[in-house]
Amino acid sequence: MASPRYPEKVVSGGQTGADRAALDVALMLGIPRGGWCPKGRLAEDGVIPPYYPLRESDSRDYAYRTRLNVRDSDGTLILHRGVLNGGTALTLRCARDLGRPVFVVDLEHPPELNTVHAWLRRHHIWVFIAPTTKYLHLQPSCVRLWQGIETPL
């Protein structure tokens, strides 16, 4: 039997910037996507558009939504530049608190793709959450990393 393609699903909370970029890149690469969003599909720019296939949580609290996404994922891949803060730092804390595998990638010094693939295999990651620092989707290195992760192993 052939090995499944990594990942089988990308999870995101659907916020503006890189959260939506993760969902958009997954769509572009043919990777299923989903995740939890705050009640009312709340986002900093209003309401999360309906074409993002997200489930509403029982709360409008962003931290609650983040915890659900980390809990329901096999692991967390964080793409960032510089210091982690805000929701990205919260995601890292949630992953550690829940004992979930987490891999932090500084795009200033990205690892070789085989390092990311090894992490995916070692932890049996099929569904992962990929929060990234805002607007990293504008960086070609971020898209190249996503395309490399999507490459069959």
Task: Describe the secondary structure blueprint for this structure.
Blueprint: E1 9-11, H1 18-29, E2 33-34, E3 36-37, E4 42-43, E5 46-47, E6 55-56, H2 62-71, E7 75-80, H3 86-97, E8 102-106, H4 113-122, E9 127-129, H5 140-150
Parallel strand pairs: 1-2, 1-9, 3-6, 7-8, 7-9
Antiparallel strand pairs: 4-5
Helix pairs in contact: 2-3
Structural commentary:
This protein is of the alpha/beta class and 153 residues long. The chain has one domain (9-150): Rossmann fold, CATH 3.40.50. Helices cover 36% and strands 18% of the residues. It has five helices and nine strands; from the N terminus they run E-H-E-E-E-E-E-H-E-H-E-H-E-H. Strands 2-1-9-7-8 form a five-stranded parallel beta sheet, with helices on both faces. A two-stranded parallel sheet has the order 3-6. Strands 4-5 form a two-stranded antiparallel ribbon. Helix 1 (18-29) links the parallel strand 1 (9-11) and strand 2 (33-34). Helix 2 (62-71) crosses helix 3 (86-97). The longest helix has 12 residues, at 18-29. It is globular and about 40 Å long. The protein starts with 8 loop residues before the first strand and ends with a helix. Residues 135-141 have low confidence and may be disordered.
